[in-house]
Design a protein that fits this description.
The chain is built from ten helices and six strands, in the order H-H-E-E-E-H-H-H-E-E-H-E-H-H-H-H. With 261 residues, it is of the alpha+beta class. The two termini are 68 Å apart.
Length: 261
């Protein structure tokens, strides 16, 4: 990486030099990476409440049905029509009237909007079967709401769609494993964020450093300008450190001379 040059006022980035710089500061980068990973894991473990998802499955099938003044006719082999039928039932499921019935029946401490956010429903592989996923911090509560939906939904659909046929494929069971958060995923994300942050700090500090540290920097950055002189570092191991050592070396005491006398 070459710093600002007076001829062009541009910054040229040498990827090999960047790699060498990062390798030289590997201990710092690894330390920051491990630190952020540990902090992310502890925050996830101690501060984020786990969520659990209970799933029920239902089957819908009509040879023909009417919705309002519109008549529909589908067969079980027409998957696109079945998908449209399932989408209709999902809309009915998440309607305000249906969810408020669930809230009253189970005496839930939620309003319509809160319960709406807890429920997800979609067709399974574009078939006539759709799943009902209820996510909650309490696994027993998630199971209870999902099964309550399977009880309320058939009657609710029958009151709207003529000739509807809704059957339960699977009841929900109490989930034994959390759905979120993922300790592994969050820890990996924290480690990656720490690595990027540490590498950015190293590179930015180097780019903002306008001091001249070595003779090689001058000869490589300004090859057309002759180097007139170099001031050696007398205190370094490569310089003539013995000069300063001899200056500071204590003189022999006069006690030896007195003994000889």
């Amino acid at each position: 990486m070459n710093k600002n040059q007076p001829e062009t006022d541009e910054i040229e980035i040498d990827l090999l030099e960047v790699g060498s710089l990062l390798l030289h500061r590997a201990k710092f980068i690894i330390a920051i990476t491990l630190l952020t990973a540990a902090v992310t894991f502890m925050v996830t473990f101690f501060c984020i409440r786990p969520k659990y998802t209970a799933t029920a499955m239902m089957y819908v099938n009509n040879s023909s049905f009417s919705l309002g003044n519109t008549n529909f006719s589908i067969s079980s082999g027409e998957l696109s029509a079945a998908q449209s039928l399932v989408d209709t039932y999902v809309v009915i499921l998440k309607s305000r009237t249906t969810l408020e019935d669930i809230i009253r029946m189970d005496e839930l401490p939620y309003d319509y909007d809160e319960l709406y956010e807890m429920i997800e429903s979609e067709a399974v592989n574009s078939t006539e079967i759709f799943s009902i996923d209820v996510t909650s911090h309490d696994p027993q509560e998630a199971e209870k709401i999902a099964n309550s939906i399977t009880q309320v939904l058939p009657d609710r659909i029958a009151s709207i769609v003529d000739g509807s046929d809704v059957r339960i494929v699977d009841y929900a069971v109490i989930p034994s494993e959390r759905t979120s958060p993922s300790y592994t995923l969050n820890t990996v994300i924290g480690a990656l964020a720490g690595f990027v942050l540490a590498a950015a700090i190293v590179i930015i500090r180097y780019m903002l450093d306008d001091q001249i540290h070595t003779e090689d920097y001058l000869t490589q950055t300004y090859p057309n300008i002759p180097l007139l002189a170099v001031v050696p570092d007398m205190l370094s191991s490569e310089g003539k450190g013995y000069y300063y050592a001899s200056e500071s070396k204590p003189k022999p005491s006069s006690g030896t001379e007195q003994k000889r006398a």
